[in-house]
Automatic annotation (TrEMBL):
It comes from the Bacteria. It holds the Pfam family DUF2071. It comes from Streptomyces sviceus (strain ATCC 29083 / DSM 924 / JCM 4929 / NBRC 13980 / NCIMB 11184 / NRRL 5439 / UC 5370). This is DUF2071 domain-containing protein. Coiled coil: none annotated. SUPFAM superfamilies: Acetoacetate decarboxylase-like.
Length: 253
């Protein structure tokens, strides 16, 4: 693998004609450090674990998806708005592109789940979910319905703290991810990369008040034995996603 591209807090290239637009709101970023060998076998062929100071990370990211829109059309208020909780890993490909790999993507709207699974081959799962704010705390709940493992669940509460003026190198590494790796076109290959862009994250320190979950182990990863090494909150950003690029870096037609 070549050297990864630098971690940058701003998108390396704007997406002028988006495939999808949406807003990601009320995000909790919860991360555990792991040795790269622990997750290497779970990444798509053509990628290796992306590392920071020799370690890679398992992320549990809970948020509200808001008004998903296609091809520049206005976002959909009901079907395009729903809670979501992702288990994700950190990857880099042969072009040096840093990204994320989703191991599971719980969402509360069945039609977007089916579309994500069939249209993008993403590991979307239908769950009962909620996101509730009370003062300076936000609580995220999830209980899986289909396809399984049925009953996989999470209860997360974070208490937000002060605004972060300048994120650390690790905080940029965990949040400034400008694409995802996935086998969009069927089978283990060919690998493709779906880019995104958005404004720089507004990030806040956060305290993890409650963390009762088995989504990480349900995603095929060891259950965390220790407290997370990073807990962050963001009120959110508007997002634009581009077309998937095939392994040679050429966008699909």
């Amino acid at each position: 693998m070549p050297n990864p591209t630098p971690v940058t807090p701003d998108a390396p290239a704007p997406i002028r004609v988006p495939l999808l637009t949406q807003r990601w709101l009320d995000l909790a970023f919860i991360h555990w450090a792991v040795e790269p060998a622990v997750v290497a076998g779970l990444l798509p062929r053509g990628t290796v674990p992306d590392t920071h100071d020799g370690l890679t990370y398992v992320g549990l990211v809970a948020f509200r998806m808001h008004r998903v829109g296609w091809l520049g059309l206005p976002g959909v208020p009901y079907l395009g708005t729903f809670p979501e909780t992702n288990v994700r890993l950190y990857s880099v490909d042969a072009h040096g592109r840093r990204g994320v790999v989703f191991r599971s993507m719980d969402a509360s709207r069945l039609i977007p789940v089916v579309m994500g699974r069939l249209g993008f081959r993403l590991p979307y799962l239908w769950s009962r979910m909620s996101v509730r704010r009370a003062g300076d705390t936000v609580t995220y709940t999830s209980s899986r319905r289909w396809p399984g493992p049925r009953g996989a669940r999470s209860l997360l509460t974070v208490r937000t703290g002060e605004r972060i003026g300048e994120p650390t190198g690790l905080e940029h590494f965990l949040t400034a991810r400008w694409g995802m790796h996935n086998a969009f076109f069927g089978g283990p290959e060919p690998l493709a990369y779906l880019p995104n862009d958005h404004p720089r994250w507004p990030l806040y320190r956060a305290e993890l008040v409650t963390c009762e979950q088995d989504l990480v182990s349900a995603a095929g990863l060891p259950a965390p034995a220790d407290a997370p090494v990073s807990v962050l909150y963001s009120p959110g950003v508007p997002v634009r996603l581009g077309r998937p690029a095939r392994p040679a870096g050429i966008p699909t037609p």
